C-alpha cells in the first residue's frame, strides 16, 4: 500500500538517523556545540582553532562531506546536528499548499576574518546554493582577505520603510492634507507603534505628486528583518488617518505605493538605503594578489573600469559584479527572504591603488536580514545563525556585516578570475 505523508516523514528521519550514527565520531570524541563568538580576551582571529588548515577540505564524496563536518567542528566547536525533515506544521506562516520537500546542499566557506562594529573575529560562513564554483570562489576570496589581514566593516544604519499613497480628487485637497499630517504626527506614531513591541517609527516623510501624497514610514525593526512588522504598523497608521482626517471629498489609500522599492532594484535605495546599511573594505598587497589570484593591482584597477563602463552602458542599478550570488546562497542558509536579493543587490564596489596595494570597498545600503521571525525558526537555519553567533542582541546588525563581508570576498574572487582570464576554465572544471 502507498505510504502516507506522515509515514514517509518517519522513514526519512530513521534513514537520516541511521546514516548519521554510522558516520559520526564516537561519543567521547564529540565536540560540544557552542556559538562561534570569539573570546573577548583573545586576539581577534584565533577563535579556538584546533587545526592548521584554514579552508574546508575539498571533494564530492560522502567521506569528503564528513571531513568537512569534522573540520567545521574543529574550527568552531560547532557540530552539525543530524539531518531531519521539518514537520509540515512548522511551515505555517512560511508556505502554503505544501506537497513535499526539495533537497538543497548546505556548504561552508571560510575563513572570514572581520573587524567590525558588531562582527569581530573569525567565522565560517554557511551557504545554500546550486551554483557550481560559488562556494569555492567565496572561500578563495575569504582566504585572500584573511591572509591580507581581514576585512574592516562598519554598520552605518538600520531602517525599513513602507510607503502608502493617499489619493484625493483635486490637487488642492492633496496640498491641504500635508499640514494636517504634521499637526497629528504624534497620534500617527502612536497608532503605528501600537502593533509592535519591538519596532520603532523613526520618521515620516511626505511627497506630493499630482493629487496624491506618498507617505514614507521608516522604522527600526530591531532583530527582525521586519517586512511584516512595517506593513502591519503602517496599515494601523493609515486606518487612523482614514478615520480622523476630514476631506472635502472622499479619498482613498493604498498601504504600499512601491515608492519604498520593496524587492525592486532602485537608485533610491542606493542613496537612502532600506534595511541594514553596511560598508566593508580590505587592502591587499600586490605580492599576495599575484600569489592567490594570479593578477596584479594595476590589472584589476584597469579592467574593473572596463566592466564598470559596460555596466553603465547597460543601465545596471548599482556597481558590482554579482553580489546577488552571495546574497541568495546566504539567505537560503540563514532563513532570510530570498526575494529581497532583488532589492539588496544594488551595492557599489570600488577598486583603488593606494601605496602599491589594492584597496577594495563594497557599500551595501540595503541588506534586509533578521535573526528572529520568518524561517529563522527552522532547525537548520537556526543552527546556521548559531554558528555565526547571530542570535542575541544586535544579532541582525552582526549578521548584516557578515553578509556584506562575504559578498565582498566573492566579488574580489570573481574579479580576479575574469581579469586573469580563468573565468571560463574555472566554470568548465567546477561548474558543470
Give a structural overview.
- The chain is α+β, with helices and mostly antiparallel strands and 432 residues long.
- Among the domains are: 66-79 and 106-157 and 271-406, 3-hydroxy-3-methylglutaryl-coenzyme A Reductase, Chain A, domain 2 (Alpha-Beta Complex), CATH 3.90.770.10; 164-259, 2-Layer Sandwich (Alpha-Beta Plaits), CATH 3.30.70.420.
- It is 41% helix and 19% strand.
- It has 14 helices and ten strands.
- The protein has helices at 5-23, 62-76, 134-147, 171-183, 185-193, 227-244, 267-272, 286-293, 297-314, 323-334, 341-344, 379-387, 395-419, 423-430, and strands spanning 106-115, 120-128, 151-162, 165-167, 200-209, 212-220, 252-254, 275-284, 348-354, 357-367.
- Strands 1, 2, 3, 4, 5, 6, 7, 8, 9 and 10 form a ten-stranded mixed sheet that branches.
- Strand 1 and strand 2 (120-128) form a beta hairpin.
- The longest helix is centred in the last third of the chain and has 25 residues, at 395-419.
- It is globular.
- The two termini are 39 Å apart.
Short description:
By secondary structure, the chain is an alpha+beta fold.
Topology, pairings included?
Elements (H helix, E strand, L loop, with lengths): L4 H19 L38 H15 L29 E10 L4 E9 L5 H14 L3 E12 L2 E3 L3 H13 L1 H9 L6 E10 L2 E9 L6 H18 L7 E3 L12 H6 L2 E10 L1 H8 L3 H18 L8 H12 L6 H4 L3 E7 L2 E11 L11 H9 L7 H25 L3 H8 L2
Parallel strand pairs: 1-3
Antiparallel strand pairs: 1-2, 3-6, 3-8, 4-6, 4-7, 5-6, 8-10, 9-10
* CATH superfamily annotation of the domain at 66-79 and 106-157 and 271-406: 3-hydroxy-3-methylglutaryl-coenzyme A Reductase, Chain A, domain 2
Please give the CATH class of the domain at 66-79 and 106-157 and 271-406. Answer: Alpha Beta
Kindly provide the radius of gyration, computed on alpha-carbon positions and rounded to a whole number of angstroms. Answer: 24 Å
Number of helical regions: 14
Rounded mean pLDDT score: 89
Taking pLDDT < 50 over at least 5 consecutive residues as the criterion, the unreliable ranges are 1-51
Q: Please report the distance between the alpha carbons of the first and last residues.
A: 39 Å
Beta fraction of the residues? 15-25%
- CATH topology name of the domain at 66-79 and 106-157 and 271-406: 3-hydroxy-3-methylglutaryl-coenzyme A Reductase, Chain A, domain 2
CATH level-two architecture of the domain at 66-79 and 106-157 and 271-406: Alpha-Beta Complex
Amino acid at each position: 500500500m502507498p505510504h502516507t505523508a506522515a509515514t514517509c516523514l518517519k522513514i526519512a528521519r530513521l534513514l537520516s538517523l541511521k546514516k548519521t550514527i554510522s558516520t559520526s565520531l564516537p561519543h567521547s570524541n564529540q565536540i560540544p556545540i557552542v556559538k562561534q563568538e570569539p573570546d573577548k580576551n583573545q586576539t581577534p582571529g584565533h577563535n579556538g582553532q584546533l587545526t592548521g588548515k584554514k579552508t574546508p577540505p575539498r571533494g564530492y564524496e560522502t567521506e569528503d562531506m564528513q571531513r568537512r563536518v569534522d573540520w567545521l567542528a574543529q574550527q568552531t566547536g560547532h557540530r552539525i546536528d543530524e539531518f531531519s525533515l521539518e514537520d509540515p506544521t512548522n511551515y505555517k506562516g512560511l508556505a502554503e499548499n505544501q506537497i513535499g520537500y526539495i533537497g538543497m546542499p548546505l556548504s561552508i566557506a571560510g575563513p572570514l576574518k572581520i573587524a567590525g562594529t558588531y562582527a569581530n573575529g573569525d567565522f565560517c560562513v554557511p551557504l545554500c546554493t546550486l551554483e557550481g564554483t560559488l562556494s569555492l570562489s567565496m572561500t578563495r576570496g575569504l582566504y585572500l582577505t584573511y591572509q591580507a589581514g581581514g576585512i574592516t566593516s562598519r554598520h552605518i544604519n538600520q531602517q525599513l520603510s513602507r510607503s502608502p499613497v493617499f489619493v484625493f480628487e483635486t490637487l488642492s485637497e492633496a496640498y491641504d492634507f500635508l499640514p494636517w499630517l504634521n499637526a497629528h504626527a504624534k497620534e500617527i506614531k502612536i497608532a503605528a507603534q501600537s502593533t509592535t513591541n519591538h519596532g520603532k517609527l523613526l520618521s515620516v516623510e511626505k511627497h506630493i505628486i499630482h493629487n496624491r501624497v506618498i507617505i514614507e514610514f521608516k522604522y527600526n525593526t530591531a532583530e527582525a528583518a521586519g517586512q511584516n512588522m512595517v506593513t502591519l504598523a503602517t496599515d494601523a497608521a493609515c486606518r487612523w488617518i482614514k478615520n480622523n482626517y476630514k476631506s472635502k471629498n472622499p479619498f482613498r489609500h493604498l498601504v504600499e505605493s512601491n515608492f519604498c522599492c520593496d524587492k525592486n532594484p532602485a537608485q533610491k535605495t542606493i542613496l537612502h538605503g532600506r534595511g541594514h546599511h553596511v560598508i566593508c573594505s580590505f587592502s591587499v598587497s600586490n605580492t599576495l594578489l599575484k600569489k592567490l589570484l594570479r593578477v596584479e593591482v594595476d590589472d584589476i584597477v584597469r579592467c574593473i573600469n572596463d566592466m564598470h563602463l559596460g555596466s553603465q552602458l547597460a543601465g545596471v542599478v548599482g556597481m558590482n559584479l554579482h553580489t546577488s550570488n552571495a546574497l541568495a546562497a546566504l539567505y537560503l542558509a540563514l532563513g532570510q527572504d530570498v526575494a529581497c536579493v532583488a532589492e539588496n543587490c544594488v551595492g557599489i564596489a570600488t577598486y583603488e591603488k593606494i601605496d602599491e596595494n589594492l584597496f577594495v570597498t563594497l557599500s551595501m545600503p540595503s541588506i534586509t536580514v533578521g535573526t528572529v521571525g520568518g524561517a529563522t525558526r527552522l532547525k537548520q537555519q537556526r543552527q546556521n545563525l548559531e554558528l555565526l553567533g547571530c542570535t542575541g542582541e544586535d544579532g541582525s546588525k552582526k549578521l548584516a556585516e557578515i553578509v556584506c563581508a562575504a559578498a565582498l570576498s566573492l566579488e574580489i574572487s570573481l574579479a580576479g578570475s575574469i581579469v586573469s582570464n580563468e573565468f571560463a576554465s574555472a566554470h568548465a572544471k567546477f561548474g558543470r
